[in-house]
Amino acid sequence: MQDTKNSITFKGNPLALAGNPPKAGDPAPDFEVLGNDMSAVKLSDLKGKTVVICSVPSLDTPVCDTEVRKFNEHATSLGNDVAVLVISMDLPFAQARWCGAAGVANVRTLSDYRDANFGKAFGVLIQPLRLLARAIFVVDKNGRIRYIQIVDELTNEPDYESALKALRETQR
After folding, report:
1. 44, 49, 81, 85: most buried by Cβ count inside 10 Å?
2. How far is CA 53 from the centre of its chain?
3. Which of the residues 8, 63, 64, 148 is marked catalytic?
């Protein structure tokens, strides 16, 4: 699925996204974000794995909470060769606290708060709010983007089934 755009909406109001998202088939841009322990994490650190990247505005919102919990459930059956990353602008400390309270341990939460490196590279930085758009990217073991879903309306959940189907097809 290829769903690229330069704007989304929040409760019907348009919001501009910074940059242009990559296209399916493109090499995934490398980025650096922070882990919950404040260590630098790069996409290139996961070379050789299939990577599902879930971009969310904030873990402390009902839709993001639901989305991350669903991907956390699915992550248990995806195997060791798949990494599920959840990236937001939340501070690493808040992410760690949220994961502990929510019992989320199968996905890796990462923070883009420092310089929006991921948001800019993947075209999902919401300019006026300095938050990330809700999006899912599937990157294959060779570092190529195989699936992109940028959700039109920030308050909507993503199409989980399409993302998981793309992931399964990528693993074949």
Report:
1. 85
2. 4
3. 64
The rounded distance, in Å, linking the Cα atoms of 124 and 87 is: 11
Residue of 23, 24, 45, 49 lying closest to 34 (CA atoms)? 45
Question: For residue 137, what are the β-bridge partners?
Answer: 53, 148
For 31, the token pair is: 């980025």
- Single out the residue of 156, 130, 124, 157 nearest to residue 21, CA to CA: 124
64 catalytic per annotation: yes
Query: What is the DSSP secondary-structure string of 48-60?
Result: TSEEEEEE-S-TT
Domains, the chain: 7-171 (3.40.30.10)
The gap from C-alpha 66 to its chain's centroid, in whole angstroms, comes to: 14
Enter the pTM of the model: 0.93
Give tens-digit pLDDT for 56-103. 999 999 999 999 999 998 888 888 899 999 999 999 999 999 999 999
Q: What sign does the dihedral 134-37-96-163 (CA atoms) show?
A: positive
CA 57, 166, 52, 144: dihedral to nearest 10 degrees?
A: -110
Q: Give the tens place of pLDDT for each residue, 146-160.
A: 999 999 999 999 999
